[in-house]
Structures are given as C-alpha cells and as structure tokens.
Amino acid sequence: MMQEILKIAIQKSGRLYDDSVQLLRECGIDLRNVKDRLRTVSENFPIEVFFLRDDDIPEYVEDGVADVGIVGQNVLLEKGRSIREVEALGFGKCRLSLAVPKSFDYQNLQSLQGKRIATSYPKILGTYLKKNAIEASIHEISGSVEIAPGIGLADAAADLVSSGGTLFMNGLKEVEVILDSQAVLVAGNTIGNEKQDILNKLLFRIRSVRKAKKSKYVLMNVPNGQLQDVLQLLPGMRSPTVLPLAETGWSSVHSVLDEDEFWIRIEQLKAAGAEGILVVPIEKLIL
Ligand code: ATP
Ligand code: ZN
Is 55 in the pocket of ligand 1 (CB under 6 A)? Predict the structure, then answer.
C-alpha cells in the first residue's frame, strides 16, 4: 500500500514565506530546493509542500487539493471557506485597522457614518461596520489601500498594519483595530485517519518547537544554606535538578524558566543567593 502523504500549502513568497519554511525545518522536516518551486516532497517526513498565493490557500484546503495550510487569520476570515483553524503559529502578527487622514476630525466610529472606506477586506470590514451599526460604503481595492484616502478615492482605509510606518508615511492615523491577526495552521473539515495521524505528529513537533522558544534552561550555583529560598522560586518541569558542586557547601541548580517571567525570576534568584547564573536556549521541549 502506498504511504499517505500530508499536503501542506504555504505562501509562495511574501511575509509568511520565510517563517513558514523555517517552522517546518525546525520541526525536523527536510525541505530541499524550495526556491522557485511549485511543490516539493520531504525526504524524511510524509509531507508535500505546495507554494501558493496566500489568498488561494483557503480554497485549496477546502477543495482538498491541500490537506492543511498556513495563512493569516485575516485571510482565513475574509475568505470565509469551510475550513478550520488548528493551531496559532505566533508569527505574521499584524492587525487590520481603520485609518483616516491626519486632518480628519475623528471622534469615534460614528465619525465614519456615511463615509467611503477603501479596503482589501470587504467581508471582515462589512461585518464589523454592521455590528457597530455604521452605514458606510466599502470600496474594495486589491492593493495599496493606504494611498486611497490621499488620492480622494475614499475617506478612510481599512488595512493591515504592523508598525504603523506605512500609514504614517501616507499621512494617515490609525483609529480603530478591527482584528488582531497572526499566521495559523488551517485544515479541511474532513481529513482521513492516516493523514490525521501525520497532522498530529506535525502538531506535536510544532508545539515542542514553540514551547522551547518560550523557555530557557538556567544553571546556577547556590550556597547550600540558601538552597531552600532558591528552590521556592523555580518551577522546573517536575522539580529543579540539584547537584553537589566540587566545592563543599555549594550546589548546582538546573531549571527551566518561561520567557514571560524570565527577568523577574533571575532578579529574585540573585537576591536569594544564586551566583554564576548560566542561561541556555532550548532547541526542543517535549512534555
Ligand atoms: P500573495 O502574493 O501571497 O498574495 P500578499 O501580498 O497578499 O501575498 P503579504 O504582504 O506577503 O501578502 O502578507 C501575507 C500575510 O502576512 C498577510 O495576509 C498578513 O496575515 C501577514 N502580515 C503581517 N504583517 C503584515 C503587514 N504589516 N502588512 C501586511 N500583511 C502582514
Ligand atoms: Zn495575498
């Protein structure tokens, strides 16, 4: 019997391409000759990668041409295909925001009543305006939405923003966030058992890689007298590792710290008597 293969669609080029390829590689999936290819099969994992325009990915996944895909939540929502979000991936972060010219006297959403808004996201914008009882006309344009107000095509724009630099350069100010977005793994609603097994393996690897990125391995020397104070500060996976040092009266303590609380913990550890704190990145974290 032929072995099943999971078909994954990722962006061919653009903002999600590098991170998508890197994520698969960090999951230990060999991908050779990815440049200028339409598709490639991994040598060491049952996966085939399709390189497509991000806008087309939801449709391909819905139709089963690909089993899974990586797209921004903005594209997932706008396309409204019957596919599901399986996992948030933590990259491609941006927001879909409303922006108006700097000179526009913006008070609140009511200021957009009866105005013309340019966007590439008519569906998401339409839903948002309806929910907020704003009657405005939506002008769908496929690119360079940020120049529309400046050339008189619209009074406002709803566009993707990350730093806000592009808006600023076009004389606009961001006034409302419609949607916070990031890249997600999406899957079709019907997926065979064997493919689901491959997807589960892939998900397990993705989660391990992402958890590792959020964690640091720390080693430190602690006088035995202060050991209890130091240990209280450490979560560890089960509990911290404690090893005697060659020098009597001292121990080496090893633990895993979360990125979010990292600096606070390090300060507390120092204050509690830890010395020679060594911080090491973790490549994979299997729980
Ligand atoms: P394609 O040729 O595949 O259609 P595109 O021009 O539509 O590419 P990109 O500009 O590469 O798309 O953006 C892809 C995705 O990256 C967006 O849909 C969004 O989810 C995410 N993204 C992150 N930051 C930004 C940003 N500042 N502007 C636009 N998109 C962003
Ligand atoms: Zn696109």
Answer: yes
Fold classified for 215-281: Alpha-Beta Plaits (3.30.70)
**CATH number for domain 94-181, candidates 3.40.50.2300, 3.40.50.150, 3.40.190.10, 1.20.200.10:** 3.40.190.10
105: alpha, beta or left, given left = phi > 0 and alpha = psi -120 to 50? beta
pTM: 0.90
Angstrom distance (rounded) from CA 239 to CA 148:
58
- Whether 77 lines ligand 1, by a CB cut-off of 6 Å, is no
pLDDT digits (tens, 9 = 90+) for 123-177: 999 999 999 999 999 999 999 999 999 999 999 999 999 998 999 999 999 999 9
User: Cβ neighbours of residue 231 under 8 Å, at least 6 residues apart?
Assistant: 239, 240, 242, 253
Q: Ligand 2 mean position to 204 CA, how many Å?
A: 28
Q: Is 74 in the pocket of ligand 1 (CB under 6 A)?
A: yes
